[in-house]
Amino acid sequence: MMMGLGGVAVAAGLLGKAGLAQAAKVSAGGKSVLIVVDVQNCFVPGGSLAVKEGDQIVPLINKLAKGFQNVVMTQDWHTADHVSFASQHAGKKPFEAVKLPYGNQVLWPDHCVQGTEGAALVKDLDIPHAQLVIRKGYHRNVDSYSAFMEADGKTATGLGGYLRQRGIKRVFVVGLATDFCVAWTAMDARKQGFEAYVIEDACRGIDAQGSLAKSWAAMKAAGVRRIQSGDLA
Ligand code: VGL
Ligand code: ZN
């Protein structure tokens, strides 16, 4: 049978529906947690590392959170002289990369410095039942995009143990930025044996040099499920 572009589109559509039907069966029950990643002033318009439309996801996240008994929030929480800041590397500009002992590190504008207004959670975030706020990236010499594991790949934040001890099996991730902290958190959730879902429309990406598409490919390969908020039961 010949299959033109139209056929491919239909097949893709069917696949999309199958994924949707499966996802719709997945509810945010007691064994699930919503992880709200880095919805902080620095990452929304007006902030030092602003993610385009980063503020627009806040009402949706508030609404989604009402459907979860278990909610964890994260805060990027750097020292003022953090190694991920371009300002700490002579001659380097934000969005360039350097090699560090643990691997490649993209350099960023100064952001989310411990105790500053920029590091505070966005004030319109309205999730009073959130149970844990996990801070990450507080070691001067190591970044931590993931809420589970620092960028050295061996220093745990403790979140995996916390979730396991509470009987959590399924992790839903929303927030900022899709291609960095959301992606790394979701992939590490898989590595630690959790089911992982990223709710795409409740995230926004930085998309530096194709990083958004790359991150979705990496997440797919890691077994992370890409869903939309409307796919939730
Ligand atoms: C993030 C870059 C640097 C994030 C944090 O939250 O995605 N991105 N620090
Ligand atoms: Zn950071």
What does this entry look like structurally?
Helices cover 26% and strands 19% of the residues. The chain has helices at residues 5-25, 58-65, 159-165, 178-191, 211-221; strands at residues 32-37, 71-76, 97-100, 103-106, 132-136, 170-176, 195-204, 225-227. The protein starts with a helix and ends in a 6-residue tail after the last strand. The strands form 2 sheets. A 6-stranded parallel sheet has the order 5-2-1-6-7-8. The chain has a two-stranded antiparallel sheet with strand order 3-4. It contains 5 helices and 8 strands. Strand 1, helix 2 and strand 2 form a beta-alpha-beta unit. It is an alpha/beta fold. It has a single domain, classed as Rossmann fold (3-Layer(aba) Sandwich). Pyrazine-2-carboxylic acid is lined by residues 38, 43, 76, 108, 145, 176-177, 180-181. Zinc ion (ZN) is lined by residues 76, 78, 84, 108, 111-112, 137.
Strand order of the largest sheet: 5-2-1-6-7-8
Could you estimate the helical fraction of the residues in percent?
25-40%
Instruction: Give the end-to-end Cα distance, rounded to a whole number of Å.
Output: 37 Å
CATH architecture: 3-Layer(aba) Sandwich
Low-confidence stretches: 1-18
CATH superfamily: Isochorismatase-like
> For the residues shown, what is the average pLDDT?
91
Q: Estimate what percentage of residues fall within beta strands.
A: 15-25%
Name the structural class: alpha/beta
Question: What is the number of independent domains?
Answer: 1
Give me the count of strands. 8
**What radius of gyration results from the CA coordinates?**
18 Å
Biggest sheet features: 6 strands, parallel
Count of alpha/pi helices: 5
